[in-house]
Amino acid sequence: MNLPGEDGLSLCRRIVDEGGPPILMLSALGDSIDRILGLELGADDYVVKPITPRELLARVRALLRRRPLTPSNVERTAYAFAGFRLDLAGRQLRAPNGMILLLTRSELAILTAMVERPRAVISREELLTMVRGVAPDVVGRGVDLHISRLRRKIQDQAGQELIRTHRGLGYLLDAHVTPE
């Protein structure tokens, strides 16, 4: 309920509206009105702290039996931005004119990170971890090369720069992204 930045109730409502995963609210607020409000806004269960780890695990398992995780409620499989459509399941990017742009595995990983966090700066280190799957010991210029190629492919179709560089910080996708 008392999360930094956004309260648990609005977060719960947003997750439910987006068809997200099952929600178990864990809170120190145990008044009847708090529990009712959490459940009314879409939580599948509401647990008041303190709780033993064993009971919490049993509640999570029961919740998953009633509402199993599916691709539609775990992660998005497609995103739309600036006329583009990124299909993660099909591993393809469709340009506004309908043309399919071929992406390398690394370009797809980078673009996926960017559409999942639009207008947020993502560091070169984070991007390299996403591309390689492990945290880098040394960050080379490889990410910059992938970004350059990806930027060129997108910019050729969009007619505008959507991938921006923030010197010393990283890169961001400057577009409104809609999960599909």
Topology:
Elements: H1 8-17, E1 24-27, H2 32-40, E2 45-48, H3 53-66, H4 71-74, E3 78-81, E4 84-87, E5 92-94, E6 100-101, H5 105-116, H6 124-132, H7 142-158, E7 163-166, E8 170-173, E9 177-179
Parallel strand pairs: 1-2
Antiparallel strand pairs: 3-4, 3-9, 4-5, 5-6, 7-8
Helix pairs in contact: 5-6, 5-7
Key features of this structure:
alpha+beta; Rossmann fold; Arc Repressor Mutant, subunit A; 2 domains
CATH topology of the largest domain: Arc Repressor Mutant, subunit A
- In the CATH scheme, the class of the largest domain would be Mainly Alpha
Identify the overall geometry: elongated
Number of strands: 9
| Biggest sheet statistics | 5 strands, antiparallel
Helix coverage percent of residues?
A: 40-55%
CATH homologous superfamily annotation of the largest domain: Winged helix-like DNA-binding domain superfamily/Winged helix DNA-binding domain
Across the major sheet, the strand order is 6-5-4-3-9
The tally of domains stands at: 2
| Head-to-tail CA distance between termini | 28 Å
Order of helices and strands: HEHEHHEEEEHHHEEE
Reported CATH architecture of the largest domain: Orthogonal Bundle
Taking all residues together, what is the mean pLDDT? 84
What does this structure look like?
There is one protein chain. The protein has helices at residues 8-17, 32-40, 53-66, 71-74, 105-116, 124-132, 142-158, and strands spanning 24-27, 45-48, 78-81, 84-87, 92-94, 100-101, 163-166, 170-173, 177-179. A hairpin with a 5-residue loop joins strand 5 (92-94) and strand 6. Helix 5 (105-116) packs across helix 6 (124-132) and helix 5 packs across helix 7. It folds into 2 domains: 8-70, 3-Layer(aba) Sandwich (Rossmann fold), CATH 3.40.50; 78-179, Arc Repressor Mutant, subunit A, CATH 1.10.10.10. It starts with 7 loop residues before the first helix and ends with a strand. It is of the alpha+beta class. The relative contact order is 0.12. The protein is elongated and about 55 Å long.
